[in-house]
């Protein structure tokens, strides 16, 4: 049986591609308001994309029928940067890598990183001057990179962090261009961007392999960082660990997956607080009541309930991962429609999280909405900032802890204000959902 699926009208050859490219968020949102549970787009003459708006169907794709799919095109291209790590690998290989890496991300393990997160937040603020305007998005990228570098390698390797940051930037630009380009120019062709990418990748490999070699030589004992855990991980079936190349791919994966996503979330939090003084005031009251003047710790997190609600609500309105895409590899039936190999299924957190069916006043910033039993009343995949199923974000606890600790640390000392009252801040949906053109905010020291 095949149900009827509709979608916005497109042009003869390019289909809906140009409208989508012009303003992806607006395009998918208005399509979701005009069509049913499944919306059909055509990108170019042959590529069929179906956006799922029914949480139960999303559950089938990500959980019960996940074996019929592989990751979408964008992530396949990302292999140029992150190799065949946990984010991009498929099937048995993914399962093995996931098993090997899971313990390193256990809630108790990552609790030890709380101190690093707070200290890096304090370090960042040591550069801030009362009254100045700063690009807060740039600052958030810097601090999350410093945090992931230190939790990965144990010590603050300042030069290494800058180098890795630059290489990731070049790599992600290369991936974004390649994913959206019609012509596939192989890396062996020495164009300017190919050369820049190859060179930065080589420098990066040298840095990471040197760190792996040093650690293998000196032993992992006594080190409490992610790198030691990756090196020490053994598969329970065959007792084997990871090769240096696998460790390199996983290190890069964690840098890429765990850096910009959290930075974006922090930027959106500060933007929302700057535009909602009454919510900021409630946050200040909580920080005073729980912390007085001292810095937060992991042990404070269960008591920082409003802080956590702000993080949760920000991930609803501005989910750093704004869509999850899957490509069908084996014919599959979902919701009465049979999808064919090569079809793309798109599941957008951005659109779902602003759906009237599940959220009152969906475009408003109301952290209190998560206070009661909202998450029990709505279907699981009506709120899924970290995805779901066997490929759910492995760093979700890490990210939630980092966001809450950075928020508490920074808000205790500074208020962040719009530069001008009519300042426009728009989301830009690239690989992740970031503020377009950065986030200039005026910083004011709290009395
Ligand atoms: C607010 C911050 C974050 C958000 C919104 C986020 C979101 C996501 C989402 C939606 C996925 C699933 C993608 C898919 O199914 O196609 C994912 C996967 C992943 N994330 Fe995150 N993430 C965040 C932070 C982090 C951090 C801090 C780390 C590591 C320290 C991390 C590491 C990963 C990895 C390794 C995967 C791949 C898991 C797998 O395929 O088994 N993420 N993330």
From TrEMBL:
Record InterPro entries: Cyt_P450, Cyt_P450_CS, Cyt_P450_E_grp-I, Cyt_P450_sf, Cytochrome_P450_Monoox
Binding site for heme: 393
One Pfam family in the UniProt entry: p450
GO MF term set: heme binding; iron ion binding; monooxygenase activity; oxidoreductase activity, acting on paired donors, with incorporation or reduction of molecular oxygen
Alphabetic keyword roster: Heme, Iron, Metal-binding, Monooxygenase, Oxidoreductase
Cofactor: heme
UniProt record similarity statement: Belongs to the cytochrome P450 family.
PANTHER family in UniProt: BIFUNCTIONAL ALBAFLAVENONE MONOOXYGENASE_TERPENE SYNTHASE (PTHR24291:SF50), CYTOCHROME P450 FAMILY 4 (PTHR24291)
Protein name per UniProt: Cytochrome P450
